[in-house]
Design brief:
alpha/beta, three-stranded antiparallel sheet, 13 helices, globular
Length: 301
């Protein structure tokens, strides 16, 4: 690679493209595929987000992709939705705290790697989400998870919120594991005294309609887990996705879905024969912003 002073992001990535099958070469091929995908009006883009990527710094990246109509579907965890709401309600994520975990707990701090949250922010979250749910049930008490999240997003005032931006732009957010989060806990507590039902299977009907109504589907998978599987499995009935990019740190040896090579999805008809698949091993909070910046620059040429 030829590294020069003043290089652009894309120029650096193009130099990485000279590195064959190693990580740098994969970074180039993934960036090129992302650029082609974002520039193709016939391709529906599913963004799958697992892990603590909202507190890890990608909140605005995801929000801006929605605002700029780069993605058609967002599939994520209940935790990322919770952290988006925590910031929408005025909370924030901190770094640079000190002390062991037992001391942090006594101080009302929760730790996510080297990021921290305050219990006071979650108290505000609990109060605000309960108020929102109380207003929602006045309209109806039966929702799919996607419609429930759209209703929440439409009430928010924070323009930087993923949920608010998705509601405004008409981009559906699916969170099949919603109950496994602080939002899910508050939902359960709310239903002890109120009637509110979420229909998870109803989301599959809507998502299947999107898949069948799309000429092509490409998935961008950040992390693994349930969001990854939901994005791929929703395309099973049409023979699988046409293209996919995966950024993960999981390994394949354990047989986990998160670490599974994308090629494995072909055996399940979750990726089409001949589909363009690229996996980049690395931290998505590092890899994906660089990849997206390179793809955007590539599409401006």
């Amino acid at each position: 690679m030829d590294i020069k002073d003043g290089m652009s992001v894309l120029e650096l990535i193009e130099q990485m493209g000279k590195s064959g099958v190693l990580g740098a070469g994969r970074m180039y091929r993934a960036t090129k595929l992302l650029a082609e995908t974002l520039d193709d009006d016939d391709t529906a883009v599913f963004l799958s987000v697992a892990g603590p990527l909202v507190p890890g710094g990608l909140r605005k990246v995801i929000r801006d992709m929605i605002a700029n109509e780069m993605i058609d579907v967002l599939i994520t965890s209940g935790a990322n939705i919770t952290h988006d709401l925590l910031e929408a309600f005025g909370g924030r994520h901190h770094y640079g705290m000190t002390g062991d975990d037992e001391t942090l707990c006594q101080q009302g701090m929760g730790r996510i790697g080297d990021l921290y949250t305050q219990s006071e922010d979650f108290e505000v979250f609990e109060k605000e989400i309960t108020k929102i749910m109380s207003e929602i049930v006045k309209k109806d008490n039966n929702f799919t998870i996607r419609k429930f999240l759209t209703e929440i997003g439409s009430t928010l005032s924070d323009d930087e919120s993923i949920l608010k931006t998705a509601a405004r732009k008409g981009v559906p957010i699916y969170a099949p594991g919603l109950i496994d989060s602080m939002l899910g806990l508050q939902l359960w507590m709310f239903t002890q005294d109120n009637e509110l039902h979420l229909d998870a299977s109803g989301d599959m009907s809507e998502l299947s309609d999107i898949v069948y109504g799309s000429k092509k589907v490409a998935t961008v998978i950040l992390g693994g887990g349930l969001p990854k599987h939901y994005a791929l499995a929703s395309n099973l009935l049409t023979g699988g996705v046409d293209a996919a990019i995966q950024v993960t740190m999981d390994r394949s040896e354990t047989g986990s879905l998160g670490g599974a090579p994308l090629e494995e999805a072909k055996s399940w008809a979750k990726a089409k024969a001949g589909s363009n698949l690229v996996t980049v091993i690395g931290d998505a909070t590092i890899i994906f912003p660089i990849m997206l910046a390179g793809a955007m620059e590539m599409n401006k040429r």
